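User: Show me sequence and structure for the first protein, then do the same for the second.

Assistant: Starting with the first protein.
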Amino acid sequence: MDRQTKRLPILDKQKKIVIMTDGIDNCMNTTVALRIKGKLDFCRLEKAIQKVIDENDALRFVFHVEENGEVYQQVLDKYQYTLDVRNAEGSTAEEKERSVLLQARAIMDGHQKFDGGVMHQFVLFDLQEQDYILFACINHIITDGVSNTIAMYSIIAAYNGLETPHTGASYLDFIVEENRFIESEEGKAQIEYWQEESRGYSEDFIKFPVENRKKSALKLFFMTELKPIREFARANKISVSTVNVFLCHAAISGAFGVGDTAVRIGDANRTKVYRQTMGFFATVALHRLTFTPQMTLREAFAISNNKYAENMKNAHLGNFATPTLFTFSYLNYNQGNAKMPMGEAVAEPYIGIHESKIWDSVVLVVAETEENLIYKIGCDEDAFPPQILEKMHRSFALAVQCLTEQDMTFEEFWKALA
């Protein structure tokens, strides 16, 4: 039996995951995938994945539930991985990719409870000769988006016989450091900042017609041309992602006709020493804006931009803020040629399985491609019926027009959407 470290308390942000999932729900499973074309050595791939697991203790964390309901974590000294190869079913390429998606969903739905087992699965789907999808499903309690990318790049490096980009700092080191920071003067100041920042915030404009929230997969919301938003971002010397943070606020404000909105924004929250370490380093910062009827959307955007910078300075303990039901995530697929050699094969990111079930009321995922911005939404459909989603859609479009073409006041904005 593998030896383990002593029992460790879970971090505050990990506790929030336990609360949201009751310790058994799998909606916090995150996914990442590679499409691999060419000759692939299965034994070599298995050893590469094993090397990454050996070097990243986050992939050896296990969780247990005490009799009193408390969850604690331990680290296995060793975990033996065996390559899991599965066949894609179907006679056409489309049918096979659909089969992979359905199998991936089943993996997300069927594992990673707090029962002492590891919180990940790496599966190789065999589509046809020399055509594969390497799929990883990792629970958010031990990972974040940056870590998932590190995992895949590290597997490729190990497969190619190269040194993996690991700094030597462990996730266990981070947990010890994080617990110390919370008790420090700087940590206490950040907690006070978030308590003040979220004081008085309410989302009573959202009504839940049922007692239990429903969880659903992300679905395509709408698409818009990237060029005008990119030009606006460049003119203001900011990122496209920052523009979309404000657009999410405008969509909420327009759909519900409210002037006080908040969105949760992920922050990588990594110091240099953990730059290449897998783990749950990311935190979530509350970004709150207040609009008045006579304020224009561009004026509000300027406030949003300044507030964003302030929030990010305190993002380390952003999870101590009052929670909001809206979460924003930004993905950039506009990275040019992302093909990477993998022995005699070639690997590239595969986004056909980029799905996750939502745990709050609304998750807005914005993906930047070469020409478009793709908006996906996951929501509780009882609280957000089609008419509300349609109004949010129109709010997004009108807000883009206000920023890139003709500005208007929020009073005019709300009237146009009524």
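Switching to the second protein now.
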Amino acid sequence: MMTKKWLVIVSLPLFALACGAETAIVRSAPGAPPDNTVYGVRTTDRVAFLTIDDGVTRDPGMVKALRDAKVKATFFLTAQYVRADPGFFARLARETGSVVENHTLTHPNLEGMSRDAQRHEICGASDDFAKDFGRRPTLLRPPYGARDETTADAAAECGITHIVNWSAEIAGGKTTFAAGNRLKPGDIVLAHFRRTFAADVAEFVRQTERANLTPALLEDYLD
């Protein structure tokens, strides 16, 4: 069994906190507000992670797209889109080995919102998903990737351990990289529940193969 070694990449300012030979965690500088936002996972494993946002579009073919690609994804769902058919997303996660996480109740820009308002958006979605899927989310994808100093504290009160942004994005079957022109080990890739779902999953597989990487489940590397 392969032993995982990783380094979580978070927002600046940063300093490395050594945690023994196996793992080192990068956290905010001393005295800075707590910030557990990650954009990627620095790991010795040649893996990349697919995350799929919102839940706007539902299509039974999504199960086949993920199964055929042998990809387990993290679904950052928005509660207002799930309510129409939570069973669809429960089946999609169950049949593909994927995991449902938190993308708020109504998809607002959290930056600048009060702590109570942020807690309502985050905890409300987590409460819904605990009932719908039998598991309380531990990861949050803030809408638009936007968050402020209040978000980490509000999210922690809702049981969130990491705020997850991204280092590459796939839309319409095409990839945009934050840096460089190919995926790197530990990259977190953003996609959405859209009509191009199958093409976007196929593009993720193409990009992982191009970079000699293997798709992996983000929750296996963040705890």
